[in-house]
């Protein structure tokens, strides 16, 4: 719990969650709203309306949500019923007028009761993209307050399947809601360590001199999942790992990591600089991409991707990808940026790894390069691998780290879930951590030719890798070829048993 909660949002806000009976709303959207309420960042005067086709009552919606509302203290358990009493439900199709008319009646009744001078509305579309335009059109027709209030519309990824579909979606949304009213949510931008990238980059002067191609030799952004498609292969088969996490999550992390100092600390200045990074990325070389598809585990206990009955036979769907790109500007020219993502790997982890050039002069090449590692999940942390002398009479040099592990440093702090953070930003009208239309356009322009190559008639066959492995056997060779230097697997400076002996631990 935060020590002194402050309600930051406008009172008497109406939040409408479309798709309220679905898994996304149940597991993410409503729990995020409760998290904000629990911590004192959502006014108890807020009205929350669930809207979906399922035949539910107010009470059945509340019972459905209750197991997913996270309580952190005995006091917070007492808030669950208060929050649920803020929630009501409308059952109606998405493509007919009646439900939207009922919704408008409820909002107007609420505004009148609260004596609101202006209506303050947030519409959250926890829906598949196929429903975006239908719902947005009806909201514009029946539920837009016009000059009498403020409206914000949150839409979930995916924002298109490729460049033409993304442009078509945008061309249909833009006449309905302005870019100021529209919030495209990528939940990775709400993660604590991702939101920390801008303060880390621009509030620490010691980074300024070395954050460039004169000192940095490679950057790697990795996304690893320890599970496969688990019966959802039919859905994943039309998406693949590149659309699922690389074009959106990892690209957003890349722009924040590599952008120039924004002119002002406001959302549009920040997004302007992100766009400049995207514009500087060279077109991808489709032949310099390592792609894979997982097979059954070595012990035979976990099935391969093609063993999933929902996957079409012989599918070449990519479940692992590793690709190198270059940001062609004065700061980063010549520095390979490696994006790496996969399912059914040996661990679950998302991290950034910035590798510095080797030390020249006094020490030989056996000395490890410095690496800055930013672990986004799990167990948020930042640490800098550095070389230091082992204590005592020895002259040995070993790797240790300057370590900021959040669990130990900030164990008493409230660290919001990603969706909590982003809904809070939306209610504050802060677009910094949401995707702008031109970001989306440039990103798809870069990825669409690669996707066409990987999914075309002459698509390469993905390399096999065992469920639970690090990926295809060719991975290490690919990383070396594209600029990542595998370190001397010596030792960390960890607990010392004698003055001259280190307890060894793999890096």
TrEMBL record:
Residues 16-196 form the Glucose-6-phosphate dehydrogenase NAD-binding domain. It catalyses: D-glucose 6-phosphate + NADP(+) = 6-phospho-D-glucono-1,5-lactone + NADPH + H(+). Its EC number is 1.1.1.49. Keywords: Carbohydrate metabolism, Glucose metabolism, NADP, Oxidoreductase. One of its GO terms (molecular function) is glucose-6-phosphate dehydrogenase activity. One of its GO terms (cellular component) is cytosol. Residues 199-486 form the Glucose-6-phosphate dehydrogenase C-terminal domain. Pathway: Carbohydrate degradation; pentose phosphate pathway; D-ribulose 5-phosphate from D-glucose 6-phosphate (oxidative stage): step 1/3. GO terms for biological process: glucose metabolic process; pentose-phosphate shunt, oxidative branch. PROSITE patterns: G6P_DEHYDROGENASE. Pfam families: G6PD_C (PF02781), G6PD_N (PF00479). NCBIfam families: zwf (TIGR00871). Belongs to the glucose-6-phosphate dehydrogenase family. Catalyzes the rate-limiting step of the oxidative pentose-phosphate pathway, which represents a route for the dissimilation of carbohydrates besides glycolysis. This is Glucose-6-phosphate 1-dehydrogenase.
């Amino acid at each position: 719990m935060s020590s002194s909660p402050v309600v930051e949002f406008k009172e008497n806000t109406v939040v409408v969650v479309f798709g309220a009976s679905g898994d996304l709303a149940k597991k993410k959207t409503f729990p995020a709203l409760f998290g904000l309420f629990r911590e004192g960042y959502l006014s108890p005067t807020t009205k929350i309306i669930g809207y979906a086709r399922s035949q539910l009552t107010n009470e059945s919606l509340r019972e459905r949500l209750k197991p997913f509302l996270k309580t952190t203290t005995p006091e917070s358990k007492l808030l669950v019923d208060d929050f649920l009493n803020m929630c009501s439900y409308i059952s109606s199709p998405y493509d007919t007028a009646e439900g939207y008319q009922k919704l408008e009646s409820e909002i107007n009744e609420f505004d009148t009761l609260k004596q609101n001078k202006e209506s303050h509305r947030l519409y959250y579309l926890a829906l598949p993209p196929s429903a975006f335009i239908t719902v947005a059109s009806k909201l514009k027709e029946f539920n837009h307050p016009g000059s009498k209030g403020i409206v914000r519309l949150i839409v979930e990824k995916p924002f298109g399947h490729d460049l033409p579909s993304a442009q078509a979606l945008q061309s249909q949304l833009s006449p309905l809601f302005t870019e100021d009213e529209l919030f495209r949510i990528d939940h990775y931008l709400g993660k604590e360590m991702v939101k920390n990238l801008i303060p880390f980059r621009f509030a620490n002067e010691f980074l300024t001199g070395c954050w460039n191609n004169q000192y940095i030799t490679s950057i790697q952004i990795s996304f690893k999942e320890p599970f496969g498609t688990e019966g959802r292969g039919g859905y994943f088969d039309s998406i693949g790992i590149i659309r699922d996490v690389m074009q959106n999550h990892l690209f957003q992390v890349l722009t924040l990591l590599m952008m120039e100092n924004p002119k002002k600390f406001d959302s549009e200045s920040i997004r302007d600089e992100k766009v400049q990074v995207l514009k500087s990325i060279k077109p991808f070389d489709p032949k310099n991409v390592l792609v894979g598809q997982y097979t059954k585990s070595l012990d035979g206990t976990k099935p391969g991707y093609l063993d999933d009955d929902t996957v079409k036979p012989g599918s070449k769907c990519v479940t692992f990808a590793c690709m190198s790109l270059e940001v062609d500007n004065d700061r980063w020219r010549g520095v390979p940026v490696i994006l790496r993502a996969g399912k059914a790997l040996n661990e679950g982890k998302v991290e950034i790894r910035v590798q510095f050039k080797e030390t020249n002069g006094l020490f030989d090449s056996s000395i490890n390069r410095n690496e800055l590692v930013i672990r986004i999940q799990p167990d948020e942390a930042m640490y800098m691998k550095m070389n230091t002398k082992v204590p005592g009479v020895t002259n040995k040099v070993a790797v240790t780290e300057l370590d900021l592990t959040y669990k130990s440093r900030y164990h008493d702090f409230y660290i919001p879930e990603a969706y909590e953070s982003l809904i809070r930003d939306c209610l504050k009208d802060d677009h910094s951590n949401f995707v702008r239309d031109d970001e989306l356009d440039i990103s798809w322009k870069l990825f669409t030719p690669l996707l066409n190559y990987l999914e075309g008639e002459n698509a390469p066959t993905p390399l096999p890798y065992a469920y639970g492995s690090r990926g295809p056997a060719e991975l290490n060779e690919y990383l070396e070829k594209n600029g990542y230097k595998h370190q001397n697997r010596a030792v960390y400076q960890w607990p010392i048993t004698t003055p001259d002996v280190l307890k060894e631990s793999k890096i």
